[in-house]
Amino acid sequence: MESNHEDIERVILSRQDIADIVERMGEQISSDYRESTPLIVAILRGAVVFVADLMRAIDCPLEMDFMAVSSYGAAAKSSGVVRIVKDLDTPIEGRDVLIVEDILDSGITLSYLIKNLESRGPRSIEVAAFLVKDVPGRKPAVRPRYVGTHVPDAFVVGYGLDYAERYRNLPYLGVLKPEVYS
Ligand code: IMP
Ligand code: MG
């Protein structure tokens, strides 16, 4: 039988590391949104695993919706082109919106999304990113209010993150062996 694990060079975050991160983020978000019933907007598909855990770590009332954008295709590098593939079903005028994203790399995806959502008149928009990729010499286009942790400039998979739609089901975060995508 084929295994996902064979394609992983090293583990960056174990299941327990992830659980600790999510717990801490949930506590922060719970205390910040206690008065407001935020609308959680999870970005398909990468944020699905993270949001499922994060929402259960938040103990104030909330609603959720999904958006899908495409910017990567099956490549390991951003094309710089962002397109809304699935829009929200929920009107966000006057709402406190919390965008939940798996990883902030160039920030192209999120800055486009924030601009788009801002035009709909929400009361606030914040971002919770599970990961922020640190690339030396690069300033991120977006500054998330909530950050799980930072990762080095390598292609990471697992815990919802894919390469060509695979590896999302790995319960940990790992660096993909470069020979898998080169
Ligand atoms: P950005 O627009 O460059 O910030 O790209 C963000 C999106 O690219 C994320 O939502 C991911 O879907 C994808 N992405 C960026 N880096 C990685 C990675 O290391 N592994 C898996 N997906 C990634
Ligand atoms: Mg992706």
Order of strands across the main sheet: 4-3-2-5-6-7
First-last Cα distance: 23 Å
Task: Name the ligand types.
Answer: inosinic acid, magnesium ion
Structural class category: alpha/beta
User: Helical segment tally?
Assistant: 4
Q: How many separate structural domains?
A: 1
Q: CATH top level?
A: Alpha Beta
Tell me the total number of β-strands: 9
Shape: globular
What would the CATH topology be? Rossmann fold
Helix content: 10-25%
Tell me what you see in this structure:
With 182 residues, the chain is of the alpha/beta class. It has one domain: Rossmann fold (3-Layer(aba) Sandwich), CATH 3.40.50.2020. It has 4 helices and 9 strands. The strands form 2 sheets. Strands 4-3-2-5-6-7 form a 6-stranded mixed β-sheet, sandwiched between helices. It has a 3-stranded antiparallel β-sheet with strand order 1-9-8. Helix 3 links the parallel strand 5 (96-104) and strand 6. Helix 1 (15-32) packs across helix 2 (48-56). The protein starts with 7 loop residues before the first strand and ends with a helix.
